[in-house]
Write a structure and sequence with these properties.
signal; Trefoil (Acidic Fibroblast Growth Factor, subunit A); rod-shaped; 39% strand; six-stranded antiparallel β-sheet; 2 domains
């Protein structure tokens, strides 16, 4: 909450009877003249009446609402909206402190006129009016998690090659032609999916290592592949449903080179696979 104080100064004003108002010889004026006795300070009552309206406190309240939307890891905060126009109205009392002996004066205009006609002079001391402007900003944040799209690019083994789908068994295979590569989608929960929304699956060969299936079929004993993208866009994946970080490798077979995932380096070596580093290259940058 932001409080801003503005100070407005009203200058001294001197008002004489003849320059301020026209004299109307009515019952109100007669009552004022009749009340001019030593025990009735008529002029002082007039001055007090004028002073009654000399000071006002103005309070303006402004409320500005700003929406903040968060998408993935990017937070976009709009530029602060300009405050709405402040329309301040000075308060004026409905009733004025008119003395009882001047009850014939029905309101502000008639009493003021009568006061002027008896020569009452208003000299107002400069008055400071305080305007309090209160501004409240409300920020509502909406977080939206989105999938990250990428392709897998090999770095040290078959550097620059990509991971595609083997044409016959659906396993993750090495491919030089980028047009044949599989587009992967990393979900907020870490599950990796491909084009049609089906999850990529880890198919175990043993308790220590297995293959990666990029085909829309749920093989017995398989589990959804979970990965994360770290520094420099390097990809790490979990070995099996236990959630332990595994080691990626490339295993040569008679008809293809397949990507495998082992629990340890030793497990990959037992398969005759080479350890490989894989980058998750964002699709928009291709």
């Amino acid at each position: 909450m932001l409080n801003i104080l503005y100070f407005l100064t009203l200058g001294a004003v001197t008002v004489t009877a003849q320059s301020m108002l026209k004299c109307n010889a009515d019952n109100c004026l007669r009552a004022i003249r009749a009340g001019s006795f030593p025990d009735r300070p008529v002029s002082a009552d007039c001055i007090a009446f004028f002073d009654y309206f000399a000071t006002a406190t103005i309070t303006a309240i402004e409320i500005t609402t700003i929406s903040d939307t968060t998408t993935a890891t990017t937070i976009t905060v709009p530029v602060e909206a300009p405050p709405p126009d402040c329309k301040c109205k000075r308060g004026v009392p409905e009733s004025a402190p008119i003395p009882a002996y001047a009850s014939k004066c029905s309101g502000f205009v008639r009493y003021s006129s009568a006061c002027a006609c008896i020569g009452a002079t208003l000299t107002a001391t400069p008055v400071t009016t305080t305007v309090i402007k209160t501004s409240t900003t409300v920020i509502s944040a909406t977080a939206t998690a989105t999938a990250i799209s990428f392709v897998m690019q090999l770095q040290n083994v078959f550097p620059g090659y990509y991971i595609a789908q083997h044409p016959t068994n659906g396993l993750a295979a090495v491919e030089a032609d980028i047009s044949k590569t599989v587009k992967f989608y990393l979900q907020p929960d870490g599950v990796v999916k491909f084009g049609n929304g089906a999850p990529v699956r880890f198919v175990p060969y043993s308790s220590d290592a297995g293959a990666i299936l990029v085909y829309d079929i749920e093989r017995e004993g398989s589990s959804p592949l979970k990965c994360q993208i770290g520094g420099s866009q390097y990809l790490t994946c979990e070995h099996g449903p236990a959630g332990e970080t595994g080691v990626l490798g490339i295993r040569h077979t008679p008809d293809s080179d397949l990507m495998v995932l082992g629990k340890t380096v030793q497990a990959l070596e037992a398969l005759g696979a080479q350890i490989v580093t894989v980058k998750a290259v964002p699709i928009p940058t291709l």
